[in-house]
Every structure is written in structure tokens, then in C-alpha cells.
Amino acid sequence: QGRFWTYVGDDLHPLTVLRYTPNRTRDGPDGPADVLKNFSGFVQADAFSGYDGIYLGSQGRIVEVACWAHARRKFFDARFADRVRAEIALAHIGQLYAVEKELREQGDGAWQDLDRQERFARIVAERQARSLPVLKRFGEWLDAEAPRVLPKSPLREALEYTRNHWAALNRYPQHGHLAIDNNAAERGMRAIALGRKNYLFVGSEAGGKAAAIAYTLIET
């Protein structure tokens, strides 16, 4: 039942920190509520319900940013149940990612010598001009299609997941330093997954905490 939690910093704090807990609850030592108790700013994560209390309990100190990769995965998994609608949704999300691909290329090329504030300002301008119209069309499509889809279908689950987290999914275009998804944190868990295949267990609770320290150093 043990769990590793990964925290990936931003460009000003290029660190990766892992914490180990004996279960998947947010409270307790080394849980997300404990780690983030003094944090102020944006937190981008999946839609694990345990995070909701952290956002709400922070009284605006912590701002939720949702992950488009997780939303996309829901529609990808629904393709065999309702292919046409799922592909329409994936096409909208694909347009959002196409913009981000170009912005990354600009950041590695023509914009690499700009200071971070100017670079982020240009990212926001591009997202406002190109991503916001896609989000508007997609949001309207979601609202129109949701009542037409069977309540228990995989596609309805994908629709409701996206609609329920719509505000947090729309947060990244407003800020140039935010990412479209939390794939950096997902990649940070890859070593955990590969290690689990090889050695299966951490041996003990103390072993889990020791492993978290080692992974923190290695990942960073």
C-alpha cells in the first residue's frame, strides 16, 4: 500500500523531490497536505480527490492547475465505445498540443536569449491568440454533447471529467510559466515503476523513506 509522491519544481527551482507514505492518504507526515502546508502558488496534478481538500483548505493560497494529458487519456480510452465523438475531442486536444510544440521550439530557438519574463509574455500572447479559441470551441462542444451520451459510457466519463475540471484545465494559457500537463511529474515516477519490476519491494517503511531520499537526489 506504500506510495511515492513526486514534486517537480519550476524553472527557478529545478528540483525533484520524492516523499514516501505507507498509504495513499493526503494527511500525515510526508503526505501532500504536510509537504504543501506552507506553499503558496500553483500546483499542477492529476484529479486525485485527495488533493481537493488541499486546494479548498488553502483559502486561495494554492491554485489548482489540471492536466490535459489525463483528460486526453480518458477520450483515448473511449475510442472503442464512441469513436467519432472521441476522435473529435482528441482533435481539439491535439490542436492545443500543437501550439505547445511550437512554443517549445521557439523557446529552444529564437526565444532562448530572452529573459524569462519576456519569454513568458510571448507564450501567454500566443496561447491567448491560438489556444483560447480552441478551448472555447471545445468547451461548447462538450456542453452540447454531454446530454446526448449515455450516463455510464466511457465517453460520458471522459466528458464529465473534462467539464468538472474545466476551470483548472483553462488555467495554463493565462500564465507563461505553466505547462499544459504534469507529464514532468509522471516522468519522475518512471524510475519507481522500473525499479518495482526489478526488486518488487522497498522492504520496510524505513526502506521506503530511504528510497525516497535516494530517488530525490538521482532525479534532481
Describe the structure in your own words.
Helix content is 55%, strand content 9%. It is mainly alpha-helical and 220 residues long. It has a two-stranded antiparallel sheet. Strand 3, helix 2 and strand 4 form a beta-alpha-beta unit. The mean pLDDT is 93.
List the helices and strands and how they pair.
Elements: E1 3-8, E2 16-21, H1 32-35, E3 41-44, H2 52-57, E4 62-65, H3 68-77, H4 83-108, H5 116-145, H6 154-164, H7 166-169, H8 183-188, H9 190-199, H10 205-219
Parallel strand pairs: 3-4
Antiparallel strand pairs: 1-2
Helix pairs in contact: 3-4, 3-6, 4-5
Unreliable sequence segments: none
Number of strands: 4
Which whole number gives the mean pLDDT?
Answer: 93
Largest sheet: 2 strands, antiparallel
Q: How many angstroms does the end-to-end distance come to?
A: 25 Å
Secondary-structure-derived class: mainly alpha
Features:
220 residues, mainly alpha, two-stranded antiparallel ribbon, two-stranded parallel sheet, 10 helices, 4 strands
What is the gist of this entry?
The protein contains ten helices and four strands, in the order ββαβαβαααααααα.
